[in-house]
Amino acid sequence: MDAFLHFLTNDWYFAVPMLGMSMIAVTLVIWRTLLNFNARTNMNAFLPQFQEKLQKEGLEAAMMFCETQPGMIPRRLFAAGLETSKQGLAAMRRAMATVIELEIIPDLNYLLPTILAIAKIATMVGLLGTVISMIGTFSQLSKGGDMSTQSRSIGLALFATALGLVTAIPLVFAHVMFKAWIASFEIKMKSAAHKLVLLMQASKPATAVKQKV
After folding, report:
1. pLDDT above 80 (res 87)
2. How far, rounded to the nearest angstrom, does the alpha carbon of residue 213 sit from its chain's CA centroid?
3. CB within 8 A of 3, min separation 6: which ones?
């Protein structure tokens, strides 16, 4: 602990930016986690309610119901499909595929490039701090400095690399987990889009019978 405090006070020009990046990284990971949590939808609870609205109250009521629900699937995916439902099932599929590719997926990737960039920069800054500190240490040794004294400086120099790795490793892990979650969520969205098409296809004959009556 004393060695680390010595590193913070003597090499503050590396320690402070590294600690700052660590704090920013933690904030971004928490932010992205909350965004992912808000994007989710309990489809087992939502679909029966949606189907009931669609069958009993019609298309407009179903659209209004989707707009009031949490999560990206009802508010954005289903809304896009329902808006184009009058143009046919093929138009619904195209609209939902476009929303997934051009709107939802980019939103789910929000902050991920920044998280990965901080992970890479933290590693490089840590290595830079170690290299600069080592250069200074060996310069002192070449001038006749005491090896026992300079060995402490070498140990302190390695704190820069350690701090960079401590920052980078959790960020890389978080980035991989976020990417895996996005891939899983994309499959879930495509499955939900297919279910919506089936529901609309099944509701059309019932609507046609009502209109004849």
Report:
1. yes
2. 51
3. 152, 155, 156, 159
